[in-house]
Amino acid sequence: MTIDLTPYLPTHGPKYLAIARALSEAIRQGDLIPGTRLPPHRQLAETLGVSVQTVSRAYTEAEKMGLVQARVGSGTWVNAFDDGRESEYLRGPEPRRETPLIDLSIAHPVCPPRYHLHFREALAELSEHANPEVVSACRPIAGLVHQRERANDWLNRRLGVPGDVDDRVLCNGAAHGLMLAIATVVQHGDIVLTEALTDHGLIALSRTLGFQLRGVAIDEEGVIPDALEVACQRFRPRAVCLTPTQLNPTGATMGARRRRAVAEVLSHHDVWLIEDDVHALLEPPGLMPLAAHLPRQTFHVTSLTKATMPGLRAGYLSVPRSQLHHTLPRLRATSWMATPLIFEIADLWLANGMVEALAQEQRELLAERQRLAARLLSDHPLSSRPSSLHVWVSLPPLWRAEELQQQAEQEGLAITTAQPFMVDQSPPPKRVRLSLGAEQDIARLAEGLQCLATLLEDAPPPMMQIVY
To answer: What top-level branch of life does the organism fall under (predicted)?
Structure first.
């Protein structure tokens, strides 16, 4: 077939990456539909005026991104779902490797062995004292009453999220809550604004639910109010999805003044806000959510996974009262109800103080790792928060993020580029994200950070310095 990628080609960067990104954008815009067979390498090379080698490398890159699939004897085909920008680092280490990769690629809290003991102790206690409804409940409801009451008290007292019991919906993790909130007020084709770099899960949701995601400029505090004002005027969005606390991947966190300014813009335009506050517990108490400024137009989402254990997928969605009757049918359709046993553990830990104790310990463990990263990468500019899961590292001029990622993997180290978090097709920042919690052994973390520091001090291999 003949395809015109010219409107989607970025003006900067290596040609093979420009072609791969053009394919991504053409798929996102619907000009390339799933199941489409792409032109042979030589045909596309002639169309674009590049070498066959460049197209081959572009197709390889697109396959790594999960956009396309090469079939022996049949050509290259567009995949059924364009969720590849997250797939590369979510796959996990290859089992064939003799030595597992040092994993700095996946967002994960630190989970010392004693956390497993806490979990077993909780199960033992629940085996004696759990509410019978935990195993007998079967109606599609927003959560068991006693669990919602405890959650409501915690959300009001610890996080400052306005509302009462009737506004709280229990969901299977923050990702589920985010999907429920968006599906409540956003329809297929609607425009939703978010940060120019945002969590890959939201980008995947935009493809799954069919809404148009548009990025807004950010700085060290997250979304810029003036840029948000311009974007609201230009796009007239149906909703705005923001992560004001420890934005993934940059770690940007809004101060009180920035939060007020952003809330004023959203209030003026009367647009729905969906606040992803999943990292709230990684900051000390006292940081008020955006929802506190906009209680009638905000869906607030948080969970316990980032500050306790990733398997404790207890998510909490606070819904504007006027929209609750729209949200509950979507909860029923997607999971019937949140898993009561998970929330019984969460309820126990909220009651006995374990959640806050684990969150405090998590902040201390991450602070230790942030200090280690700052010391070992002291020659390179980086952005972080004292208790963030991530470090956002700037690269020297000769390195490109994709090439550094490939070279790091050869050295036994997994890192993540900006690509999975990019909303719009623009030149990616020369940065990589390092996640500090997945490696439980701090010695292995130090080894990985030192490996990266050594790579950054050296020039890339000669073949990586070629611009195709």
So the answer is: Bacteria
Q: How far apart are CA 289 and CA 292, in angstroms?
A: 6
Phi-psi region of 212 (alpha: psi -120 to 50; beta: other; left: phi over 0): beta
- The single-letter DSSP state of residue 157 is I
Instruction: Please give the Cα distance from 204 to 300 (Å, whole number).
Output: 19
Cβ neighbour number for residue 396 with a 10 Å cutoff: 16
pLDDT on residue 357: 96
Q: Which residue has the tokens 């797939």?
A: 87
**Residue 317: partners with Cβ closer than 8 Å, 6 or more residues away:** 168, 169, 170, 171, 177, 180, 181, 299, 300, 301, 327
Reading the block at residue 253, the tokens are 């966190």
Domains and CATH numbers, the chain: 6-78 (1.10.10.10), 83-108+362-457 (3.90.1150.10), 114-352 (3.40.640.10)
**For 244, phi and psi rounded to 5 degrees?**
-75, -15
- In 261-407, beta strands by DSSP E: 272-276, 298-303, 315-318, 382-383, 390-394
Contact criterion met (CB below 8 Å) for 66 and 83: yes
Q: Do 306 and 109 form a contact (C-beta atoms < 8 A)? A: yes
* Cα dihedral 83→85→90→91 (10° resolution): 80
Which range is least confidently modeled, 135-149, 281-295, 343-357? 135-149
Q: Are 327 and 319 in contact (CB under 8 A)?
A: yes
Query: Given a cut of 90, is residue 296 above it in pLDDT?
Result: yes
Q: Write out the two tokens for 214.
A: 């548009």
Q: Comparing 406 with 271, which gets the higher pLDDT?
A: 271
- Separation CA 73–CA 230 (nearest Å): 49
Would you give the distance in Å from CA 304 to the centre of its chain? 15
Residues 74/80/86/90 CA torsion (nearest 10 deg): -80
| Rounded CA separation 258/266 (Å) | 12
Higher pLDDT, 204 or 96: 204
Q: What is the DSSP letter of 37?
A: B
Q: State the residue for tokens 């991947």.
A: 249
- Judged by DSSP in three states, 302 sits in strand
List of residues 6+ apart from 220 with CB closer than 8 A: 250, 252, 383
What distance in Å separates the CA atoms of residue 386 and residue 259, rounded to the nearest whole number? 20
Residues 97, 101, 104: CA angle, nearest 5 degrees: 160
- For 448, half-sphere exposure in the C-beta direction (CA atoms, 13 angstrom radius) is 27
Q: Which residues of 333-362 are buried (b: 16+ CB within 10 A; e: fewer)?
A: eeeebbbbebbbbbbbbbeeebbbebbbbb
The answer to whether residue 28 scores a pLDDT higher than 80 is: no
Q: Taking each helix axis as running N to C, give the angle between helix 225-235 and helix 256-269, from 0 to 180 degrees, rounded to the nearest 10.
A: 20
